[in-house]
Sequence to fold (396 residues):
Amino acid sequence: MNRFDKKVELRLPDSLKWSGADRLFKGEDLLPLWVADMDFEAPAPVLEAIRRRVDAGLFTYTELPSSLFEAVAGWLDRRFHWKVDTRDLLFAPGVVTLLKASVRAFTQPGDSVIVQPPVYGPFGEAVTGQGRELVLNPLKIEQGKYTMDFEDLEAKLRLTGAKLLLLCSPHNPTGRVWEEAELNRLAALCSAYGVTVASDEIHSDLILTGRHAPIASLPGMAERTVTFIAPSKTFNLAGLHTSFAVATDETLRKGLDQALGHRGPNPLSIAGAEAAYREGEEWLEACLTYLRGNASLAAAYLAERLPEAIVYVPEATYLLWIDLRPFGLSQAELGELLVKKARVAVSGGGAFVSEGEGRVRINLATRREILEEGLSRIAQALGSVRSSGGAKAGEG
Fold:
């Protein structure tokens, strides 16, 4: 049996995804396909490292060992051929923490910050929640694929004098792996207008097709970029609250470090993260194979059962972005249908700053039988809309 088909207890009492779904979505017995963590056991070397640390019996104040930063740098070199000095790494409890700190570090209240929606909700919150001006550079769709709108971006840069751009690479929720040519064009604009880039690359290890290029590794970008990575999505360790910033430029690094303030590491997080980066590669490759299968299954199933739906098969992440506007439902109606009739919890498009109306994001990182059940529930519920005459043919 494939290790990712193994049945494990998912409804843990403290599981946000499983035990919190009914409360948060106001439903009953919902199948959760929403928040971005996996339904798979963490890699065995990670579990063993944490058990060894627990067996030591002491949970005192903890220092960050140099071996942890060496493990992170080694991982970046092996996976992306990106050579990073360990002195350029900063520890943080999470990428959202880093996003907020970057806004504080590199802008002043009232400054403009650019984001590219639809995008992970905390991008917007990091800006507006700290008294900055949110500037939207929406992605556009060309030939059935999300792309950056560079003409709009340059116009916004010229008009607003934005100091900071929050980049999501690979992109959540659309699953795009930005091509090097796209990133180079973005880099040229940021250089021309003196813009700092804070790049959330938390999904960079989850490449299903194509190749990820860290934007900081491109010519001229290291001195104006801070990059955020974490083992959380890669190895299903979100609850360990561990992430890292790569900041080659000393001024950017010191500014971000100061904005982060005091943060004490957790000894179990250290043990788990170091083991993951040193010994988790075999598990990750097997996981990626399984996720590719899930993505293919979901795309084929929806094409057959819900041909009206516009499905954006991810190039990266384990997240499937689906445009359900052809069914003619408002965001509220769509949400109610999925909760009350389909009995599934998915991430609604309204959670992604803007440009998400009528869309949903589905988490593919679960056992295949669970995914199939969720897709079946969704197809049956939306099929009832079709039978009532509400659906129109989708256009990619």
